[in-house]
Design a protein that fits this description.
Layout lengths: L1 H7 L4 H22 L1 E2 L11 E10 L3 E3 L5 E3 L2 H6 L5 E12 L2 E14 L14 H6 L11 E3 L2 E5 L1 E5 L5 E4 L5 E11 L2 E10 L4 E5 L2 E5 H7 L5 H9 L3 H13 L5 H11 L5 H12 L11 H21 L11 E4 L1 H27 L8 H4 L3 H13 L10 E3 L5 H8 L1 E4 L8 H4 L23 E3 L13 H10 L6
Parallel strand pairs: 9-17
Antiparallel strand pairs: 1-2, 2-5, 3-4, 5-6, 7-8, 8-16, 9-15, 10-11, 11-12, 12-13, 13-14, 17-18
Helix pairs in contact: 2-11, 5-8, 5-10, 6-7, 6-10, 8-9, 11-13
């Protein structure tokens, strides 16, 4: 029975599936959200000109020898020759002039390191005999990179779940309770804090807006009918209704325009209404959308949170943020998405500069001229080799422990908390009941990292990324959930 369980559970499966998800879906999503460049200098004869990246494709790991021969490479050769086990990345670039495609070309932009035993690896699908012939250990679980001949793994990190409401007692003077939402919508990450003051007034902080009266923001989103506001936040609870009444009296603003104008003044803008609308649409709960059409849903969500926050304050109840339903594990996909997106933006800036530098009155530079491959390859290798990531984060990758087979498995299944180890964080270090069956209850280092560094249980698995939201929405409709 144990053999059957071990055979069905890939010991490094979460590293492999997360990397495959990033290559299959993540790369293309980055291209779709970031892959449009508008040069300041346009070619002669065009009023509108854009450079668009349509798609990205990846090959299999190969090597270009000194005599220019390109051939496939196996991981063992990369280890012995101190090479990086990576594959070529190609993008399809289009020039759009006045809405029409005037040129299209496939361009090499760099090389992506490949996770061993993933479906993009040359070992994928090989039998035990074939693996031995390729000088590989058939029992090796894979799940790591080979950078300059060294085996490196991306450490799985633990963080609070994004887009989740966490209600706790507020330690700031003059405030009782607060609700925190770490809003995450691909490249946009905006923390939101909704606070209930000692005098029962509600405020929200997000982006550059600090302590905006909540009822004012709801009115700025289009809900100006105070009876509707009281009904949706209060939900028939007299104590909550009294709190809403106090807020409406304290912040007496009638119209949507006056609410937007007041919020714009908080940002010290000349164009108050436009600045307020821009900040609200782009930064307030971006996972609902970043346009005017999403304002109604955002208002409904704010009223829902307000009800939860006041109710929790009355009852004195908090959300247990150490409960594992309020946490998420981030593997290859999350970390590589962050790194690749940052490097890709720099590549596009360079492409824009090269295009503007190379343009002539009667000649448009070729896509192969404006895109360079050195930056992506060097930055990816450097970050994976050193563990230094964007945003000043360090230790994201580590040298794979090969002292023994159990040590290797333990290292591949290690989970690091993003909390700093030099602070107490007593509750975060405690063994929580919801970790049972998911994490080893014994294996954790002594010293500053105790309880913050954990190891996944041998038979536990991480759920795959890329949830089919369309199917879930249909199921929710069947259960009677109505669209706002």
């Amino acid at each position: 029975m144990l053999n059957s369980a071990l055979n069905s559970t890939a010991l490094a499966g979460h590293h492999i599936t997360s990397f495959e998800y990033f290559i299959d879906k993540g790369l293309q999503r980055i291209i779709e959200t970031e892959g449009l460049v508008e040069p300041s200098i346009k070619p002669t004869g065009f009023n509108d000109f854009k450079i668009k990246i349509n798609k990205i494709t990846i090959g299999k790991p190969d090597i270009i020898e000194s005599d220019s021969i390109v051939r496939a490479i196996m991981p063992m050769e990369a280890r012995i020759r101190d090479l990086t086990y990576d594959a070529p990345l190609m993008i399809t670039v289009s020039y759009l002039g006045d809405g029409k495609t005037i040129a299209e070309e496939e361009v090499f932009i760099g090389r992506m390191p490949i996770v061993i035993k993933s479906k993009y690896c040359n070992l994928y699908g090989l039998s035990k005999e074939d693996l031995i012939h390729a000088k590989e250990d058939p029992t090796d679980p894979g799940g790591y990179f080979i950078i300059n001949g060294t085996e490196r793994i991306i450490i799985t990190t633990e963080d609070l779940a994004p887009n989740n409401i966490l209600i706790t007692k507020d330690n700031q003077e003059g405030f009782k309770f607060s609700a925190k939402i770490f809003a995450d919508a691909d490249a946009i990450k905006v923390p939101h804090t909704i606070q209930l003051s000692s005098s029962n007034l509600l405020y929200i902080t997000f982006g550059k807006l600090k302590r905006v009266p909540l009822v004012m923001l709801i009115k700025a989103l289009g809900v100006t009918n105070e009876n509707e506001l009281i009904k949706k936040i209060g939900k028939g609870d007299d104590d909550i209704i009294n709190t809403v009444d106090m807020n409406l009296i304290a912040f007496d603003i009638d119209t949507e325009n006056s609410a937007l104008d007041t919020i714009g003044k908080m940002l010290h803008s000349v164009h108050t209404k436009e600045t307020a609308e821009l900040n609200i649409d782009s930064l307030l709960f971006p996972f609902f959308g970043r346009d005017k059409d999403s304002r109604k849903v955002k208002a409904e969500y704010l009223m829902f949170i307000s009800n939860l926050l006041v109710k929790s304050a009355i009852r004195g109840t908090e959300v247990d943020k150490d409960h594992y339903s309020n946490k998420r594990l981030h593997a290859e996909s999350y970390n590589l998405d962050m790194l690749f997106r940052f490097i890709f933006k720099q590549i596009l800036n360079d492409a824009k500069y090269n295009f503007e530098k190379g343009i002539r009155k009667d000649k448009i530079p070729s896509p192969k001229y404006i895109f360079t491959s050195d930056q992506l390859t060097a930055r990816l290798r450097s970050s994976l080799a050193t563990g230094q990531w964007v945003g000043g984060r360090v230790g994201i990758t580590q040298h794979l422990d090969r002292r023994s087979f159990p040590a290797t498995i333990s290292h591949l299944r290690k989970v690091e908390s993003l909390l700093t180890s030099n602070r107490e964080n007593y509750r975060a270090r405690d063994l929580h009941g919801t970790q049972f069956g998911r994490f080893c209850a014994v294996e954790t280092p002594e010293g500053p990292k105790i309880g913050l560094t954990k190891n996944m249980a041998t038979l536990s698995m991480m759920s795959k990324e890329g949830v089919d939201t369309a199917t879930i929405k249909e199921l929710l409709k069947d259960y009677g959930v109505k669209k706002i």
